[in-house]
Recover the amino acids of this structure.
């Protein structure tokens, strides 16, 4: 398995993974369409300006089979920027092989090297156990949908 940094040329793969991730979590088609449109616009700009760093997993003969990324945004708090891990996704046929774990270790190493002092994420039910094993702690973050 090769883990490599994504480039702007990988945008459609990254967006495809994001949409598939939300599909796997049970979101309806109308939401998936919005996710695709908004994600493509935001991630294109973020890949170009360096505020989104992504790694992809490639398997021999199968191409890209998974990926993960981190979005770094300005933050007016104790630190000047905040990092959110996003788009952790592995194709169903390649799950339970440690690929998501490899992606996360690679991404977390990059985050430490970039001087980030913390990262956060929103976990799916399937990903939750892995994130706990990696040392993530549940927080008191709350959400209100309008």
């Amino acid at each position: 398995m090769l883990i490599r940094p994504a480039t702007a040329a990988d945008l459609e793969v990254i967006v495809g993974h994001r949409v598939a991730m939300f599909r796997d979590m049970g979101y309806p088609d109308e939401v998936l369409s919005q996710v695709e449109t908004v994600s493509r616009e935001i991630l294109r700009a973020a890949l170009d300006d360096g505020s989104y760093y992504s790694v992809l997993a490639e398997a021999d003969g199968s191409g890209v089979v998974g990926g993960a990324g981190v979005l770094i945004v300005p933050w007016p708090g104790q630190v000047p920027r905040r990092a959110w891990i996003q788009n952790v996704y592995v194709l169903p046929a390649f799950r339970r092989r440690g690929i998501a774990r490899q992606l996360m270790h690679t991404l977390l190493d990059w985050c430490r090297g970039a001087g980030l002092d913390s990262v956060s994420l929103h976990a799916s039910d399937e990903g939750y156990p892995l994130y706990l094993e990696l040392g993530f702690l549940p927080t008191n973050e709350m959400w209100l949908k309008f």
